[in-house]
Amino acid sequence: MPAGCTTSSRPSKPTPEPMQYVTTFSAGILSLLNSIIYFHKAVQELQRNHAQVSFASFLYSVIGAIGTFLLAVFLSTANSWKPLFHRYIRMGLAEYAVAISIILFIGMPNIGELASMDKQTLVVQTSFRPSTPDRTTFFVEFWKLPIEWIFLSIIPGAIITVLFFFDHEKSSIICTLDRYGIKKHGGFARDIVFLGTTSALCGILGIPPANGLLPQAPLHSESLMHTVRTEVVTADPEAGERETVIKEREEVYEQRRSPFLRSALILAFICPPLQRVLGLTPTSVLVGLFLFMGEQTLASNPILHRFAYMLTFSEEDLPKLPRDVTW
Q: Which residues form the Bicarbonate transporter-like transmembrane domain (predicted)?
């Protein structure tokens, strides 16, 4: 509680929040939209590749994209490979499945006869300057803009503000579903303040904001899921016996080390020396990454499971409704 606040013996009425009236169906729809966007971006990137390279190189791009996707999906299931390998090896393969797949298919086109094939790679900068050729500095000289353009920019600014709030709130709802067992919900409130500040700075610097849609947040919660086993001792006073029952529940590692490390790596790789390393990445690998993220988001989407229930004819295979359902 902040300093200077006093407590009262009368219970305070909780302040209603607008987002508490939003059901999880809208969160599922947003997650489904993210999956569709990923798949659409993958197809769009392949179309650009087809227009810029030879047909043989395009066919390899399709193979590379599908290979990146399938290898990442295959390695992500390593935890179920028991008894193969040690447990920590399986955990490492599952946690870094995407990174292993990306690195492998970045190096593959540079081996043997594939090295002489024309390929489309990511466009990067070799110097610390804006990507737009017309600009030489990062700072936007907004005081030189015509006054009418300043007022017109309020309209897209307001739209971005509304989308930013909605996207963050919906991503927060998706990440704090009951099945995740989140205990520290306050971190998402601090995130929106931090991301709002960085978005304002990005607007002044004229660079893309660090957030926008946040589909990676639910995937991050999924990657931090783990099983917690607790022993519960039940006693029978009449029989004088005790029974130990092991209960399992799914929880999320609530920590900020991995998102901080991810942000630090992003900051490092936008610097010119490491940008050249990113320039070695074929666009087909990016397509495979889009396919994987779309598939992972779609696999955990409840709307997909509800659609499968529509095709289920046997009542025994359908899940039972909770007892407190009144509709």
A: 54-312
Handedness of CA 14, 18, 21, 23 (dihedral sign): negative
* pLDDT digit string (tens) for the chain, length 327 residues: 333 333 333 334 444 455 566 666 777 777 788 888 889 999 999 999 988 888 888 998 999 999 999 999 999 888 888 888 888 898 888 888 888 999 999 988 888 888 888 888 888 777 777 766 677 777 777 788 888 888 888 888 888 777 777 777 777 777 777 777 777 666 667 777 777 788 788 777 777 776 544 555 666 777 777 777 777 777 766 666 777 777 777 777 766 777 788 778 888 887 777 888 888 888 899 999 999 988 888 887 878 878 877 777 766 666 666 666 554
> Which residues are CB-neighbours of 250 under 8 A, at least 6 positions away?
179, 180, 181, 225, 226, 227, 228
CA angle 89, 92, 98 (to 5 degrees): 135
Peptide bond into 83 cis (omega under 30): yes
Which stretches of the chain are DSSP H helices? Answer: 24-52, 55-76, 87-95, 97-107, 147-152, 154-175, 186-205, 216-223, 257-269, 272-278, 283-299, 302-310
Q: At what angle do helices 24-52 and 154-175 cross, to 10 degrees?
A: 110
Query: Residues 299, 26: contact at Cβ < 8 Å?
Result: no
The domain locations on the chain are 17-123+279-327, 136-224+253-276
Find out whether 76 and 293 touch, Cβ atoms under 8 Å: no
